[in-house]
């Protein structure tokens, strides 16, 4: 297989052949039914008896069995041709996407897949920011080689499968009812994943799980629209959560998956506690999507899954076309049902506020739950000891990929992208920002934060001037002590808890801290207090909030005026008007 052969191939001929065989199989089924009812059935019901009748029935039954076997054989040829055509089409799309990328960046591709490029000029040799042409060329060569190998493999496997049917026709095995039934059972079990089955060429032809979002997006866009629709219907679970896929395609696939998961969980007996919670959550998301149908802005289901505690993401407005995009990460005690309720409300409210502040710009506001949040009962100084940092690290990796996917699928000029984390979600955002490569965000907003794992705003990769912090004075999570401080205030927290419950534990803990005189007051459980001057971010104005834990969730309730400016300030940042944000003194 070489580049011109695959590049110029026309898989539509295979699709046409598949349709012809499907039509032939359907017509043959009609003839077999006519024989079965018009000849075999009539003789069997005629009342004819005796030796001659027995011999006639045996002969007719053999013919009926052969006709049935032949129909089963014919009916399986069309799927073989169709799968081969789709696999070849996927490989061709990968190749064409790679060739387009090569052409756009000045690379030359030989017929055998080799990649070359002109030597760098003097300016490029001395430019430290010049692209690494050798690395880019190697990546292109590997992509092209993979596409050629996949096409050659699909061609070989399809030919082998078709050869079996020609051998059956030549030997007569295709007319044996037992053989046909056995192969049908094997094919069904393979399709259901209950046996080794045969290789799924189409699934194998999709970009690998480690393919970058830009490659996924290029591959998808190179597919013809009718093939895109076939894949979305046949492989929704494999496509709906792929970072880099266009948002409308993700939404279409994920709605199919959502309905299937609800049906599956509803049919099970003895669900675990978390399965019951996920079923409740998925039903809430279904209801939310029905409620939002036909409204503005349109809602898109960008993520759905039953891993762990459940996964979901809902966007208000299309991130692929919006001028401004914000992706909000929730924290403590968030369950998947919240994505059909309060967290979706927050995303929708922030969209509305940003839209009202600057109607000339389009906005997409996303609520993203792509990880398992800590489930903590009550509030205590060492509450995050239960959570640890593993969830934030895993969530940070997933969130980084999600934001990279938003960049890859966006059309036209890049959007102004804001990463927003609340509570433990701010720690998750901080972990994503500190991963190799960082996050492709323009601004970072942290509200109700117990720390980000960073000591300085500059460590979050967007520049300290683009890190924004909202911390209500009555929000206990934004005051939680460091590890060392928590050890010194355990006695005070215990006394407070006995006297007044969880809030008393926090108050007693702070009192114990002051009596014991422990630690740096600007050090929180997960690093430097983002609202402190030492962290170096912008602290924006928020109201003190109600007394107690309610203030931890109050940031979206504060409008413009006596109730504080939290929502307005977040909307200004999201819409690219950070110069109009009202500030607040550091702690």
TrEMBL record:
Pfam families: Abhydrolase_8. InterPro entries: DUF1023 (IPR010427), PPE_sf (IPR038332). Residues 112-136 are annotated as: Disordered. Residues 123-136 have a biased composition (Basic and acidic residues). Residues 308-482 form the DUF1023 domain. Transmembrane segments: none annotated. This is DUF1023 domain-containing protein. It comes from Kitasatospora phosalacinea.
């Amino acid at each position: 297989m070489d580049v011109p052969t695959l590049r110029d191939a026309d898989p539509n001929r295979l699709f046409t052949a598949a349709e012809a065989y499907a039509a032939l199989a359907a017509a043959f089924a009609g003839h077999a039914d006519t024989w079965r009812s018009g000849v075999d059935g009539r003789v069997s019901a005629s009342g004819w008896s005796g030796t001659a009748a027995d011999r006639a029935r045996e002969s007719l039954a053999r013919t009926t069995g052969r006709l049935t076997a032949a129909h089963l054989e014919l009916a399986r040829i069309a799927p073989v041709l169709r799968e081969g055509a789709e696999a070849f089409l996927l490989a061709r799309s990968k190749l064409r996407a790679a060739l387009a990328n090569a052409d756009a960046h000045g690379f030359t591709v030989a017929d055998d897949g080799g990649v070359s490029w002109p030597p760098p000029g003097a300016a490029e040799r001395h430019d430290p920011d010049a692209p690494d042409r050798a690395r880019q060329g190697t990546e292109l060569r590997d992509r092209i080689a993979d596409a050629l190998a996949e096409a050659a493999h699909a061609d070989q496997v399809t030919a082998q499968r078709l050869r079996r049917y020609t051998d059956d026709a030549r030997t007569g095995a295709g007319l044996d009812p037992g053989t046909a039934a056995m192969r049908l059972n094997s094919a069904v079990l393979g399709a259901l994943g209950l046996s080794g089955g045969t290789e799924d060429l189409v699934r194998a032809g999709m970009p690998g799980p480690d393919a970058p979002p830009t490659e996924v997006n290029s591959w998808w866009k190179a597919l013809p629209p009718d093939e895109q629709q076939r894949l979305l219907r046949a492989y929704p679970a494999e496509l709906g959560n792929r970072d880099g896929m266009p948002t409308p395609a993700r939404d279409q696939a994920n709605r199919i998956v959502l309905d299937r998961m609800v049906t599956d969980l509803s049919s099970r007996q003895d669900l675990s506690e978390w399965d019951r919670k996920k079923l409740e959550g998925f039903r809430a998301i279904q209801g939310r999507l029905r409620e939002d149908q036909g409204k503005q802005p349109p809602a898109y289901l960008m993520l759905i899954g039953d891993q762990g505690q459940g996964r979901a993401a809902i966007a208000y407005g299309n991130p692929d076309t919006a001028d401004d995009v914000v992706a909000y990460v929730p924290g403590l005690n968030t369950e998947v049902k919240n994505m059909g309720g309060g967290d979706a409300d927050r995303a929708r409210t922030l969209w509305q506020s940003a839209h009202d502040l600057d109607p000339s710009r389009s906005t997409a506001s996303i609520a993203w739950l792509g990880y398992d949040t800590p489930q903590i009962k009550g509030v205590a100084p060492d509450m995050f000891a239960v959570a640890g940092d593993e969830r934030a690290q895993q969530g940070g990796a997933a969130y980084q990929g999600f934001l990279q996917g938003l960049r890859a699928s966006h059309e036209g000029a890049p959007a102004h992208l804001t990463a927003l984390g609340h509570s433990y979600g701010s720690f998750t955002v901080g972990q994503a920002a500190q991963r190799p490569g960082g996050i492709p965000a323009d601004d970072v907003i942290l509200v109700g934060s117990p720390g980000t794992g960073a000591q300085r705003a500059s460590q979050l990769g967007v520049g300290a001037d683009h890190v924004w912090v909202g911390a209500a004075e009555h929000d206990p999570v934004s005051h939680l002590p460091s590890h060392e401080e928590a050890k010194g205030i355990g006695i005070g927290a215990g006394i407070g808890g006995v006297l007044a419950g969880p809030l008393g534990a926090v108050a007693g803990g702070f009192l114990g801290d002051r009596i014991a005189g422990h630690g740096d007051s600007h050090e929180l459980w997960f690093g430097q207090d983002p609202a402190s001057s030492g962290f170096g971010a912008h602290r924006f104005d928020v109201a003190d909030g109600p007394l107690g834990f309610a203030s931890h969730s109050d940031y979206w309730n504060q409008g413009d005026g006596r109730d504080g400016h939290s929502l307005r300030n977040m909307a200004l940042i999201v819409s690219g008007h950070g110069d109009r944000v009202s500030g607040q003194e550091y702690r």
